[in-house]
Amino acid sequence: MNQRLLIVFFTVAVFAAGFGARLWTESVQPVPPPPVVLGVGDSKAGPTPARRGPPRADFVTLVKQVSAGSEVFRKGVAGLDSDFDADFTALLRPKQLEVWTENQRRFNGRGGPGGRGPEGRGGDNRPADTKGGDAHVADKSSEPRPLSEGEIEGLRRQPLNDVARMLSVNNRLDNYVTNYSLDEKQKAMTKTLLLVRRDKFIALTEGLSPMSIQLSALARELDRLALTVEGPGAADSKPAPKSEPAK
Predict the structure, then answer these.
(1) pTM
(2) CA gap 66, 53 in Å, rounded
């Protein structure tokens, strides 16, 4: 699969993801009753319209069904990033490596686990490596709390950011050149590393469904998502359906 076809594939996935997110939003936001018109007919408000979209529990079921493929995607992206970091930092001179280290410190310190610094991790605009390369939206505790709407939206968008970051080689290269003042030799070698990472990413995604990619970050927080949908203690109330097999 060449890059143009892959971009078309992910464009379709983005539209599908947006539609799914719309259904989720409609299913979690209450619909207000119609306004009362005083002085005309009965002053009582009419019945509240039914919510549109699938039940919230069905959304959790969908996340469970693609969880196996989602895990393959998350671990694959984390591994590609780890390999790239090791190879890229090996190219840097001592002063440049100091900038890299400082960027890492500022990024992780400013946002905490899963926070975002001004340039992203290492200038690559990606979350910090926590929990196997994924960004935590919030610290886990012995008793997890439900996801907020903002956290759900952030987790929904994260995989699409990963896709854009992996495929946008020239944009990523410009970031690295600017952030670390790379010379021509370093620039050429960095571009090679980015191309290798892109090609490996394409190979990773070829066997996965678009939905398993789109919901990968939410699948990581499935226990908290279940609490959001069904209330405390509901995450274990039903047996999980058979997960989507990793391809």
Answers:
(1) 0.65
(2) 20
